[in-house]
Design goal:
two-stranded antiparallel sheet; globular; seven-stranded antiparallel β-sheet; alpha+beta
């Protein structure tokens, strides 16, 4: 190699030789992906079908829930329908409370006081029924003696009368009717001073299996087990009974309901068999009016 010198005698080194970069290889598209195996395609299709099914069921479920809330109970399959013997009641409306007064089951109402007129809280007769005007009493209040007249035993009547006096009974509001099938209903609302008094009275008047005082036409009661499983309004107590076999010419059903400072007693009787459905319906509607 020949050295190159400049005028000063310095040897000038030739510039380093930089090798040329190789040309970039041409871009080659990646090979197409292999199609999924038949098993993978089946899994994919199944997943898509299940996803679609979930969406459909969710939509149908939401539509069904909305539909039931919008339908009458008689339109829902599997629930009680009008053919089961329920009665047609007029539209039920609770009377207005005095301004600032809490409801009987309100937490602030520790005494359970019903501030509304008790006479307006008695369940009205169903459509087509013949009302027993004698139970209306004078000015809507029934005499205590008329209430006690349904107990056949004189000693029991006197014992019960004294218990009601000692418990501070204020008023009795009542209503009765007879429907076309011969079912006779009597509803009594007994008004006391406080809910605590009513709770004590329920324990004295009734046990779990039977009431302690038997009304006319009944030899023995037993617990209405089917009704015992029915929903119950919070803050109320319900004890329901049915006349035990063998019955007389009529069968009798009876229930006690406590709601605040009111004790309700409902009695139904009918020749042959006193049907369960109208009895339960009557008791539950009266409970709602008191609650």
């Amino acid at each position: 190699m020949t050295d190159i010198t400049d005028g000063a005698g310095m040897t000038e080194q030739p510039p380093p030789v930089i090798p040329a970069m190789p040309a970039a290889p041409p871009l080659i598209p990646p090979p197409p992906a292999e199609p999924p195996a038949p098993k993978d395609r089946r899994i994919l299709r199944a997943a898509l079908r299940w996803t679609a099914a979930v969406v459909v069921f969710a939509a149908v479920g939401a539509g069904t829930a909305y539909g039931i809330t919008e339908m009458e109970r008689t339109d829902v399959p599997g629930l009680a329908t009008e053919s089961d013997g329920r009665w047609e009641y007029p539209t039920l409306t609770k009377p207005p409370l005095p301004s600032g007064s809490p409801g009987p089951l309100a937490e602030a109402n520790t005494a359970g006081t019903h501030h509304a007129d008790l006479r307006a809280l008695v369940l009205p007769a169903p459509e087509g029924a013949e009302e027993d005007t004698a139970l209306r009493g004078e000015d809507g209040w029934l005499e205590t003696g008329d209430f006690l007249a349904q107990y056949p035993d004189k000693e029991e009547r006197e014992e019960l009368r004294q218990r009601l006096v000692d418990s501070g009974l204020r008023h009795v509001a009542a209503r009765g009717w007879t429907t076309e099938d011969g079912t006779h209903t009597r509803v009594y609302l007994l008004h006391f001073g406080t809910a605590a008094v009513v709770d004590d009275l329920v324990g004295a008047l009734a046990s779990y299996n039977a009431p302690n005082h038997t009304v006319r036409g009944v030899e023995a009661f037993t617990l209405d087990e089917d009704f015992a499983e029915a929903p119950q309004l919070d803050g109320t107590t319900r004890l329901a009974y049915v006349e035990a076999a063998p019955t007389g010419a009529e069968q009798v059903r009876q229930a006690y309901v406590s709601a605040g400072d009111v004790l309700a007693m409902i009695v139904q009787s009918r020749k042959g068999t006193a049907h369960a459905v109208p009895f339960q319906q009557t008791v539950m509607l009266q409970t709602q009016l008191l609650g």
